[in-house]
Write a structure and sequence with these properties.
Rossmann fold; 48% helix; elongated; 5 domains; six-stranded mixed β-sheet; Signal recognition particle alu RNA binding heterodimer, srp9/1
Length: 689
């Protein structure tokens, strides 16, 4: 095919290319111009010329009479003269040190009559007060004067061109003229990021849902042939650190399609209309590279619910950006191959129009990992670590309830740092326990000075917590008790929180009773109370108000929930009478559990005394120590029940096919040989040493 342009009568590939104007030539020209001004006798721009000072004609005559003038230049056209001052007279004339005056400082003087000034200078010359004087030749500095007049203007133009060029050279999203361009990072081949579903431990339910999105991108005809429509978007919802962003990267890596990554804050700008322009630009780029994925992290920055009233602080710019996003998500073709993934931990704040079907078709919940998922996450993060045989993954998973994937990664990293700090060659179990303690409680403060009486008070307090939790059926199982200060706490009792699906009233009351055990022990066995129970009282009060106001667990206000999810609503959803009744119910509930705690402590006073004394001496005691004093706890924890059930349901080797048994036996044989070879090598190395 012949590409022909009728306007030029020549093929397109033979069109003359116009040379591009290079801004560097402009910069060089302006610099040369400034150099000419600076070094052509008028060095004011670079500070070469000395300072000047104006003086009256009378003062000028006085200076000449005293012999201060070295030479004088007359300008009869302007009726102006310049008197250059001798070095020894600079201090007297200018009242400044010579080093601050520059080269050849002078005094400017206006005079009237040319004849009189000439007569005066001739007289001064004859008397020896003046060596010489001269006249400024006319039109000597006409060019320089022209340059001085227009130099600042040209310099301003140069600076303007320089900054505009720098701002516009930043590519997409950079510069004044590219401010509306998208700031999304593009990965042409998302597989190059090296993140797949293998790197996402746990979250099996979420992975199953996003795996369908991968199938949509890999093989869309499979679904469109049956009349189905590819989902337009999926919203990843979950607490911080649960792996929402990692999951989105894994989707792109598995599908191996272009991946646009950006944050919700990238749309926000100081200029009006920029956010909407960036939304349109990123979707335009995505359509060109379809099938692809657009990932918007922290979408609540731009997708927050629009205000109904401007008086409540509505943001027109943010709302315009949201409107553009809504239009683009519902505007491109049904089967265009562009899928929008977004992540947020504040789904309650998002606009309802954003969550409707046809925009974000799916809401995928990425929750905190449970026991089995934490074990899988630990296995991922333990791979690069040099750990010893004392590290038990099941034990670590049990001791980190409520931890997110990011928290577990932090635990593994902190354990490695602690082991390195102690000059260990491997990371051990104790390093992990210290890492968990540091993350939960803070840095251990061994330098905090306490008296023996203060230390004993803390021991009695913490022993109270341990005693009550041991004899309350639904209280969290005790792990260890310490009176070593950590963070803001002077002591702490570490528990293994039960990860319950639902929580009953009895369970919450037992936990409240355990929280009040410290204060009750202080009152019973010390005869006074202290501020050490402030955190316990705060947690107990919040729990009580939650039971009364939200869960409907009080006798006076049963089956009523006063929870209000309306933002910007300052009025409480209940009356003052109800609020008073809530306060009474909370006070009654807490006092009841406080009396119950004191009763349990009186029943086990001797055990509490032994426990407090042991804690005072050792500073750290474990559940085994408590079991020696009080005996075995009569109740089995929920976590132990789940572990036992999983072990019972786990497939046994004897029930497997013969091929599996042979493979397992071969694996055990190879493992034993590897250990034997390793031991032999170590023995040889020792003999050589």
């Amino acid at each position: 095919m012949n590409n022909f342009n009728p306007k030029d009568k020549r093929p397109n590939d033979q069109q003359p290319k116009m040379p591009k104007f290079n801004m560097n030539w402009l910069y060089i020209s302006v610099l040369i111009f400034i150099a000419v001004i600076a070094f052509s006798g008028g060095g004011n721009l670079l500070g070469v010329q000395g300072v000047s000072q104006e003086a009256t004609y009378t003062k000028f005559k006085e200076y000449v009479s005293k012999g201060y003038a070295s030479r004088i230049i007359l300008n009869n056209q302007e009726h102006e003269l310049k008197m250059y001052v001798k070095p020894q007279a600079l201090k007297a004339v200018f009242n400044q040190p010579a080093e601050k005056l520059g080269k050849d400082p002078y005094v400017k003087v206006n005079y009237g009559s040319v004849d009189k000034i000439e007569d005066f200078l001739l007289t001064a010359q004859k008397s020896g007060k003046l060596k010489d004087y001269d006249y400024e030749r006319p039109n000597e500095n006409t060019l320089l004067n022209l340059l001085y007049n227009f130099g600042p203007f040209l310099l301003l133009i140069f600076v303007w061109f320089f900054f505009m060029n720098r701002m516009n050279s930043g590519g997409a999203g950079g510069g004044v003229f590219n401010v509306g361009k998208s700031k999304a990072k593009l990965y042409e081949k998302a597989g190059e990021m090296g993140v797949t579903f293998k790197d996402v431990a746990g979250q099996e339910g979420a992975k199953q849902e996003v795996a369908e999105i991968v199938e949509f991108l890999k093989n869309p005809e499979k679904f469109t042939e049956l009349g189905g429509k590819i989902p337009k978007g999926a919203l990843l919802i979950g607490p911080p650190g649960t792996g929402k962003t990692l999951l989105a990267k894994a989707v792109a890596g598995e599908a191996d399609v272009p991946f646009f990554s950006m944050s919700g804050s990238d749309f926000v700008e100081m200029f009006v209309g920029v956010g909407a322009s960036r939304v349109r630009d990123v979707f335009r780029q995505a359509k060109e590279k379809a099938p692809c994925i657009i990932f918007i992290d922290e979408i609540d920055a731009v997708g927050r619910a629009r205000s109904k009233s401007p008086a409540t602080g509505g943001n027109d710019e943010r709302e315009n950006t949201l409107n553009a996003l809504l239009t683009e998500m519902d505007g491109f073709g049904t089967n265009s191959g562009v899928i929008v993934l977004a992540a947020t931990n504040r789904v309650d704040m998002l606009d309802k129009a954003l969550l409707r079907a046809g925009r974000f078709d799916r809401q995928i919940h990425v929750d905190l990992p449970d026991l089995a998922e934490r074990k899988a996450i630990f296995n991922v993060h333990l791979r690069p670590l040099k750990k010893d045989d004392t590290v038990d993954v099941d034990f670590l998973a049990r001791h980190t309830p409520g931890f997110s994937g990011a928290d577990i990664a932090n635990v593994c990293n902190e354990a490695a740092l602690i082991a390195a700090r102690h000059n260990s060659t491997h990371v051990g179990k104790q390093d992990f326990l210290n890492a968990v303690d540091r993350i939960i409680g803070g840095l251990e403060k061994k330098t905090k000075v306490m008296t023996a009486d203060e230390k004993r008070t803390i021991a009695i307090h913490e022993a109270g917590h341990a005693t009550i939790s041991w004899f309350c059926q639904y209280a969290d199982p005790l792990l260890k008790v310490t009176i070593v200060p950590r963070g803001q706490a002077l002591g702490a009792a570490w528990y293994l929180p039960e990860e319950r699906v639902i929580t009953t009233k009895e369970e919450m009351l037992d936990e409240m009773c355990a929280l009040l055990g410290g204060r009750a022990a202080e009152e019973l066995f010390r005869g006074s109370i202290s501020t050490g129970a402030m955190n316990d009282l705060e947690r107990a009060t919040k729990s009580a108000y939650g039971m009364v106001a939200y869960a409907g667990m009080s006798e006076a206000l049963p089956n009523i929930c006063y929870y209000n999810n309306q933002e910007y609503q300052f009025q409480r959803p209940y009356s003052e009478t109800t609020a008073k009744l809530m306060d009474e119910e909370v006070l009654k509930m807490i006092n009841t559990q406080y009396e119950r705690a004191k009763k349990l402590l009186n029943e086990h006073a001797e055990g509490h005394r032994q426990l407090a004394e042991l804690l005072f001496q050792k500073e750290v005691i474990f559940a085994e120590d408590v079991e020696k004093i009080f005996g075995k706890r009569p109740w089995v924890s929920r976590s132990e029940e789940i572990i036992e059930a999983n072990e019972a349901n786990a497939p046994k080797l004897e029930d497997m096919p013969e091929a599996v048994k042979q493979a397992q036996a071969e694996h055990e044989r190879a493992k034993a040989e590897a250990e034997a070879n390793h031991n032999n090598k170590e023995n040889q190395d020792k003999e050589e040493e």
